[in-house]
């Protein structure tokens, strides 16, 4: 009799925010980077993507593979998404070839449903969590024996930084040397439990969306910036080495300085692109001045800013310095939503930010997100596809 | 009988705005730069410093040398100002030694009075015009046979970019190789008459004054930017060569692109400084987007932006493209003062700037200055010191 079962697997995957930035591809088709990068995986209790992968002979082949993202059908015909489907199916097909008893899932249409627990509009790196969950969920559905590093090779082809979201804690993406990208994958520098006190305060800037997409932006930088080659030849390798040592030694002073310097270096090469790319705005710069004021008042580096391809500030700090960092921003931005009431109540501020800085932040920050270092993808029995194969009622 | 004459000489000197930027000293004491630079001298009918140098046995030696700048006594005890006095006196003393008939002006106190015809608050490079006029006026008072290039050696020690204001037109400051700086001087790449159609529109940003002085800022960049050495080793030499060729061939397309790229490169190294230096703000970036929109609408490079150590935009263009450039900004910024009524009346706009860009410009630009390429220092019989040695009534 025909197999009418709906096979399902669900996973959650985290956002990661790089402290040594990925910017520049040496191979755009394979998503091979011009340099290695390193990130902190953020807690999924605050920011995560939940994805259910399902397949069934009941799904009409005519519909092909499909993805419902935050309730809306999402195009899966893009080369990068197709590459992920292809790689995962090939691995499943190999298993099926080796063990005829296995159901032929590789031949069935895939139905994926995915939801973020944070507004995509926030301009956070949702594609990283999205592709990591996408790959992990299908790998679980197919019961692939692949390690996270092997899966990171696949996720990388969907979205470069996604390869880092297959691990928790502190994660490096090694650029690799092979032309086919076979050695361009992520590995875990340290477990979250190695340095669990790491926290991140995200100041979401109420800015219009990006003018330039990251993909086209980074290739313009590679092609036109006269300073970029120095960044990848000298600056990043030094930052990677210093950052791995700082994490191994739990040295926040070094971790913080390298984080800030690498963010500055990345945005400098964007500004040196022709035509110039500006992701930071006056609100972003006010956040930098605020962090500098906090560190000056503390007499040491207790806060470290970093900015991705957008104006949001991500500020790393250690739990013990919450009052200096969160307290100061909370007092300047109390009116803004997103603070964890229990965590900020009673916090004093270390320093009163100067009016110009506070004014820019109050006018330009729409939301605060308090989070910290967290775990990698987690298998869950919460399904976004019902047993009958229909998208679950929410 | 004693010589009671008041010896006087007056000169005006221009502002210059670099198209290949000076940023970084290899010797802070001698003001020796890490790279060559190139600028356009702007017309003194719009922006100039008028300086009268005088000396007399009537001036009490106890008062020593003095400078009245824009009506206020200005400190002349700084090492840089003292270096200029010393160099000029030494040359006068040599003349006096060779010709005993000459009055011993080198032994007399100097009284200088200087006035700008533009608000210093505008954040324009007033120190360049100021030191150029200072040196030229004293050289004239002393009747030194020194060439402009020789005087540029002296002015350079007062303010690096001042050495370029001793010439009109298109001026290069050659970094030189000698340790004593004897070959770090300016020369004229082309007379203003070689390419007289060059115009500049300056958008004065209503910003607070600079947070970081250029002098300390550039040394922080040299010390901390990982990208800076690539700028001086590769980027600037290529820009200097391309710019001299573009000027020789009156090729605005190349002149404009190199101008914009070099400004971007300079500000990129500022952003890569630790802690980062930001001279441009959202208003500056809006001016860049406006220039890009104008060039896109024109289908060629008709406008080129450049930014010094502040948020003001200087936009170079050719007279024939005044409607495309000035017309567009005038229609977006009509309410702002400083436009040359005769020159803007009847100008249409080439393109309507998008609301976001226009809004930032309207909120952030306080004044427009319309000028163009101009001549070097000009001897004048307008004196700011009366025949009796007192500051002239204005």
Automatic annotation (TrEMBL), chains A, B:
Its EC number is 4.1.1.33. GO terms for molecular function: ATP binding; diphosphomevalonate decarboxylase activity; kinase activity. It holds the Pfam family MDD_C. Residues 200-378 form the Mvd1 C-terminal domain. Gene3D superfamilies: 3.30.230.10, GHMP kinase, C-terminal domain (3.30.70.890). Residues 13-186 form the Diphosphomevalonate decarboxylase-like N-terminal domain. This is Diphosphomevalonate decarboxylase. It comes from Lasiosphaeria hispida.
């Amino acid at each position: 009799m025909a197999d009418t079962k709906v096979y399902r697997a669900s996973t959650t995957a985290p956002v990661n925010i790089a402290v040594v930035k990925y910017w520049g591809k040496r191979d755009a088709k394979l998503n091979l980077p011009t340099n290695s990068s390193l990130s902190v995986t953020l807690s999924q209790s605050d920011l995560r993507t939940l994805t259910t992968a399902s397949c069934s002979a009941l799904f009409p082949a005519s519909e092909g593979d499909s993805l419902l993202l935050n309730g809306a059908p999402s195009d899966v015909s893009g080369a990068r998404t197709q590459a992920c489907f292809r790689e995962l199916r090939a691995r499943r097909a190999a298993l099926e070839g080796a063990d005829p008893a296995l159901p032929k899932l590789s031949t069935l249409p895939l139905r994926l449903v995915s939801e973020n627990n944070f507004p995509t509009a926030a301009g956070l790196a949702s594609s990283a969590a999205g592709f990591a969950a996408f790959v992990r969920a299908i790998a679980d559905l197919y019961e692939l024996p692949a390690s996270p590093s092997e899966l990171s090779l696949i996720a990388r082809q969907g979205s470069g930084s996604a390869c880092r979201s297959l691990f928790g804690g502190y994660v490096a993406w090694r650029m690799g040397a092979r032309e086919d990208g076979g050695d361009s994958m992520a590995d875990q520098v340290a477990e979250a439990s190695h340095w669990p006190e790491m926290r991140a305060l995200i100041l979401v800037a109420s800015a219009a969306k990006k003018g330039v997409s990251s993909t086209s932006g980074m290739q313009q930088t590679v092609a036109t910036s006269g300073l970029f080659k120095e960044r990848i030849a000298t600056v990043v390798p030094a930052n990677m080495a210093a950052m791995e040592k700082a994490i191994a030694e739990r040295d926040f002073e070094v971790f913080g300085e390298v984080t800030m310097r690498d963010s500055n270096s990345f945005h400098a090469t964007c500004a040196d692109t022709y035509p110039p790319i500006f992701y930071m705005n006056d609100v972003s710069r006010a956040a930098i001045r605020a962090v500098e004021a906090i560190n000056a008042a503390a007499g040491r580096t207790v806060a470290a800013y970093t900015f991705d391809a957008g104006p949001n500030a991500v500020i790393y700090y250690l739990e013990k310095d919450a009052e200096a960092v969160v307290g100061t921003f909370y007092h300047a931005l109390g009116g803004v939503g997103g603070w964890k009431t229990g965590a900020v109540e009673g916090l004093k501020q270390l320093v009163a930010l100067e009016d110009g800085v506070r004014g820019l932040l109050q006018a330009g920050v729409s939301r605060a997100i308090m989070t910290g270092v967290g775990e990698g993808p987690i298998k869950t029995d919460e399904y976004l596809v019902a047993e009958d194969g229909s998208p679950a009622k929410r």
